[in-house]
Amino acid sequence: MRSFALPSSLAIITLALLLPGCPGRLTDPERFGVGISRPDAGGPSGDGGGEIDVPAMLAAECAGAGCHGASSPAFGLDLVSPGLEERLMDATSATCMDRPMVDPADPDASLLLEKVVEATPACGARMPYMQEPLTTAQQDALRAWIAGL
């Protein structure tokens, strides 16, 4: 009598290794250094640790399929193409009372910040849509980045 246990087990293990995993999302990205630029990689050093690279964070968190990528950005808001800072400085929301996307003089008045910070923004839904909210560190980094524009 021949045993099929070993070949079956090998096939299952091989299949499990070959199947791609779901991309998912980390619930605590700072713990793993996701979205953090190292000071030795050209990022600002801050208090000795790395700071969040906001354009990279926006690309990672907001540019998924059907969202704010370059090919067909939702509501015309492309958060990944070059010139992001200039585009945001000039942008207002046609769907939200012509509010400015960013306001460096008053970052908390920026629609972009409101959409990621407030659980129920004045108009529309919280971003990233149907995902975990940005962490407090990511929100603070976005606020500081807007103030520095």
Question: In a few lines, what is going on in this structure?
Answer:
With 149 residues, the protein is mostly helical. Helices cover 36% and strands 3% of the residues. The chain has helices at residues 5-18, 29-32, 54-62, 84-90, 111-117, 136-147, and strands spanning 36-37, 51-52.
Give short descriptive properties of this protein:
single chain; 149 residues; mainly alpha; two-stranded antiparallel ribbon; 2 strands
3D architecture notes:
The chain has 149 residues and is an all-alpha fold. The chain has one domain (29-147). The protein is built from six helices and two strands. The protein has helices spanning 5-18, 29-32, 54-62, 84-90, 111-117, 136-147; strands at 36-37, 51-52. A two-stranded antiparallel sheet has the order 1-2. The N and C termini lie far apart (75 Å).
